[in-house]
C-alpha cells in the first residue's frame, strides 16, 4: 500500500514538473522582441527611394499639376474642421461616385463651393447576415440638393480622383443622425 502511495506521489511530482517546464518554455517563446519601428531617417530614405520609382515620379508630377494643387487646396479649406471634428455644412451634388472609382459606397458633396467625395467604405453584399440592418440604409434615401452636416477625422487624395476624399464618420440631416461610423473593434 505504501508503495502505491509513493508511486502516485512520485508520478504527480513528475507530471507537475513537466507541466511547469512546458509553461516556462511557452513563456520564453512568447517573449520574442518585437520589431523595432523604423527611424525618421529610414522613413525618409524609403520615401526618397519610392519617389525614384515610376509611380513616385508620376505622383510628384500630379502634385505639381493644376489638378493636384486644386485637390490640396480643397483639403486645406476643411483641415481645421477635421482636426476639431466639427460640423461641416454640405450639399449633396451626386448620389454616385466618379466612374471606375473603387472607394465603395459614397456620394459627392459640395462644402463652401468645393466639391468632395464623401466615402463610407465597402457595402456589405446581399448574402451577409447583416444585410437586414444595412448601415447605409438612410444614406441611400438622400437626394441631390439635400443639405447635410458632416463630421470627419480624415481626408485623403489620389491622382485617380479630381477631388479630395473625405472619410464619412458622422452624417446628420435636419438634426437627425443618419450615419455614424461604428468604432473599430480591438483598437485604441
What level of helicity do the residues show? 25-40%
> Biggest sheet: strands, sense, closure?
8 strands, mixed
Structural class: alpha+beta
Radius of gyration: 28 Å
Q: Output the strand order for the largest sheet.
A: 5-6-3-2-1-4-7-8
Bulk shape: elongated
Q: N- to C-terminal separation?
A: 60 Å
Total helical segments: 4
SSE pattern: HHHHEEEEEEEE
Number of strands: 8
Strand content: 15-25%
Low-confidence segments: 127-132
What is the average of the pLDDT values?
A: 83
Explain how this protein is built.
This protein has helices spanning 2-30, 40-51, 54-64, 66-84; strands at residues 88-94, 105-111, 114-121, 147-151, 155-156, 165-167, 170-173, 176-180. With 188 residues, the chain is an alpha+beta fold. The chain has an 8-stranded mixed beta sheet. A hairpin with an 8-residue loop joins strand 5 and strand 6. The chain is elongated. It starts with a helix and ends in an 8-residue tail after the last strand. 13% of the residues are buried.
Summary tags:
188 residues, alpha+beta, eight-stranded mixed beta sheet, 22% strand
Structure at a glance:
The protein has 188 residues and is an alpha+beta fold. It has helices at 2-30, 40-51, 54-64, 66-84, and strands spanning 88-94, 105-111, 114-121, 147-151, 155-156, 165-167, 170-173, 176-180. It is 38% helix and 22% strand.
Indicate the topology:
Elements: H1 2-30, H2 40-51, H3 54-64, H4 66-84, E1 88-94, E2 105-111, E3 114-121, E4 147-151, E5 155-156, E6 165-167, E7 170-173, E8 176-180
Parallel strand pairs: 3-6
Antiparallel strand pairs: 1-2, 1-4, 2-3, 4-7, 5-6, 7-8
Amino acid at each position: 500500500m505504501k508503495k502505491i502511495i509513493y508511486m502516485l506521489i512520485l508520478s504527480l511530482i513528475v507530471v507537475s514538473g513537466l507541466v511547469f517546464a512546458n509553461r516556462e518554455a511557452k513563456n520564453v517563446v512568447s517573449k520574442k522582441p518585437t520589431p523595432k519601428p523604423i527611424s525618421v531617417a529610414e522613413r525618409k530614405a524609403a520615401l526618397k527611394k519610392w519617389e525614384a520609382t515610376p509611380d513616385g515620379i508620376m505622383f510628384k508630377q500630379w502634385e505639381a499639376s493644376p489638378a493636384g494643387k486644386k485637390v490640396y487646396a480643397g483639403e486645406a479649406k476643411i483641415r481645421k474642421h477635421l482636426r476639431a471634428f466639427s460640423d461641416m455644412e454640405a450639399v449633396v451634388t451626386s448620389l454616385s461616385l466618379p466612374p471606375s472609382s473603387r472607394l465603395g459606397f459614397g456620394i459627392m458633396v459640395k462644402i463652401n463651393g468645393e466639391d468632395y467625395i464623401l466615402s463610407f467604405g465597402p457595402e456589405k453584399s446581399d448574402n451577409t447576415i447583416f444585410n437586414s440592418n444595412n448601415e447605409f440604409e438612410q444614406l441611400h434615401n438622400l437626394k441631390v440638393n439635400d443639405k447635410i452636416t458632416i463630421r470627419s477625422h480624415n481626408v485623403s487624395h489620389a491622382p485617380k480622383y479630381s477631388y479630395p476624399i473625405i472619410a464619412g464618420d458622422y452624417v446628420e440631416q435636419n438634426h437627425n443622425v443618419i450615419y455614424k461610423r461604428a468604432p473599430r473593434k480591438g483598437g485604441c
